[in-house]
Write a structure and sequence with these properties.
405 residues, alpha/beta, 3-stranded antiparallel sheet, 39% helix, globular, 4Fe-4S
């Protein structure tokens, strides 16, 4: 289970948006559907997920019906705010969405379609564990309208998977990718680097294996040790080594080189795609700061600068909705300083970059120093955009500090 929710202000029981909220009904709307179930808990994971022994009365087989209640509530909230609009992207995340029957995911998607509408060219993604995808599952998802599958590969090296507590068979990654392709879906694979004991050669083997699958999109994330996780406790007790920053930097540079040679373009610090058409539009919406509504336990939402988050546990989530109440636990409207920090943090990570004129005048003077340090592309800066170099991607946090301190 994830850490504590933010504090924030109390959220109204009916979920209503503030009357003075400047909602733009023409702005893009993304939908996130959280499926919080996992067969086992990976040692590094800090997401809001639950194994069967942690559900305390919540039931997987009732989850789709419960989530549909929140969709109905959200429709009423946005209708009252005159902000109903079709979803441009839909993303099933988790947890392991494909632990649920494909028919349940299809019913949730139908609920979104009935409540909001879904754009004809919408991107609809399902995250999948390799061991839970068969040709029949992929075909049923495609028939429901899913356009994209994101497969949690993580590594091709069995002992690295074991260090991460991943239980899937490496062979099933290829099976899942093939099933998605046969069903006509775009396919992405997710990788993690820097696991305890992982070498640069191990990482090269995983990259080679991922490239051999020829997916449309590859994500590669550095392992981050989150407080409260099993892996954090193992490191604290000295049972396994902590990630090595220099080794992780070497791994990132290797990934960028091999992926670039294979025709993948980076468009966000941890994401590469085979051309612009295969970028994750849903994740780009987060980085660009557009509107999204998150459904499910612990899910976060953002509309016109207002943020809110749901109660974490599936049982508490279901109880709120059974009473006809919003499952929101709290909400906030970040001030100008927090909004600027978030904009710099997110938009500086993407290939299109951050507009220099989005910065206060006091921060623009730092751009010249970032160029001199090789962290920002000079030509892009002349055009008014802050775009990270390869070195800048490795030191993205330092760039953010320089632009916001």
């Amino acid at each position: 289970m994830a850490g504590a929710l933010p504090l924030g202000d109390p959220a109204p029981a009916d979920g209503a948006l503030p009357r003075d909220l400047p909602v733009d009904p023409s702005a893009d709307l993304g939908i996130y559907l959280h499926v919080p179930f996992c067969r086992v808990r990976c040692g590094y994971c800090d997401f809001n997920t639950y194994t069967s022994s942690e559900l305390r009365g919540a039931r997987q087989d009732e989850y789709a019906d419960v989530l549909l209640q929140e969709i109905a509530l959200a429709r009423g909230v946005l209708a009252d705010a005159r902000a109903l609009r079709p979803a441009q992207t839909v993303f099933f995340g988790g947890g392991t969405p494909t632990l649920l029957p494909a028919g349940d995911l299809a019913r949730m998607l139908d609920g979104i379609r009935d409540a909001f509408g879904i754009a004809s060219d919408a991107e609809i993604t399902v995250e999948a564990n390799p061991d839970t995808v068969s040709p029949a599952v992929a075909e049923e998802l495609a028939r429901a309208g899913v356009t994209r599958m994101s497969v949690g590969m993580q590594s091709a090296v069995p002992r690295v998977l074991a260090a991460l507590d991943r239980t899937h068979s490496p062979d099933n990654v290829a099976t899942a990718v093939a099933a998605g392709r046969a069903a006509g879906l775009d396919v992405s694979v997710d990788l993690i680097y820097g696991a305890p004991g992982e070498t640069l050669d191990d990482w090269r083997a995983s990259l080679d294996a991922a490239l051999a699958l020829a997916p449309d999109h590859i994500s590669a994330y550095a392992l981050i040790i989150e407080d409260g996780t099993k892996l954090a406790r193992q490191i604290r007790r000295g049972e396994v080594p902590a990630p090595d920053d220099d080794l992780q930097a070497d791994m990132y540079e290797l990934a960028d080189a091999l992926l670039g040679e294979a025709g993948y373009d980076w468009y966000e610090v941890s994401n590469w795609s085979q051309g612009e058409a295969h970028r994750s539009r849903h994740n780009l919406a987060y980085w660009r700061g557009t509107d999204w509504w998150g459904f499910g336990p612990g899910a976060h939402s953002h509309v016109a600068g207002l943020r809110w988050w749901n109660v974490k546990h599936p049982a508490a989530y279901a109880q709120r909705l059974a009473l006809g109440e919003s499952p929101a636990a709290g909400r906030e409207r970040p001030d100008a300083e927090a909004t600027l920090l978030e904009r710099v943090l997110l938009q500086s990570r993407i290939r299109e970059g951050l507009a220099v004129d989005a910065l206060p005048a006091s921060a623009r003077g730092a751009v010249a120093g970032l160029i001199a340090d090789g962290l920002v592309e000079p030509a892009a800066a002349i055009r008014g955009r802050i775009v990270l170099t390869l070195r800048g991607r490795l030191l993205a946090d330092a760039v953010v500090r320089a632009l916001t301190d």
